[in-house]
Write a structure and sequence with these properties.
Elements lengths: L1 E4 H7 L4 H10 L4 E6 L2 E8 L1 H10 L7 H30 L1
Antiparallel strand pairs: 1-3, 2-3
Helix pairs in contact: 1-2
Length: 95
Amino acid sequence: MQKITMKAYAVQHKLSIFNVMKMVKSGTLKSETVEEDGKEILYILLDDETEETIKKGIVSLTNNAPHAKLEADIRALQSEVQILRKEIETLKNRL
């Protein structure tokens, strides 16, 4: 079991320190407080099980699958619009 500071945990998971503190207070993260040099420092205890649940709960920005599908649909619609504009131009020329 590894120990990591709250700030390092926040940087590692790209979270704010406030969100990490909320997870510690709610009990989703295991932690311990150690007194070093007269200061109390909060360490996060890393487990494989808790890390998996935390990673599932964190929304990542790399999940762009829905956006990629939407972009492909937009490109298809734009090409159809171009085809329809050409047809309108040919019809206008006939009249």
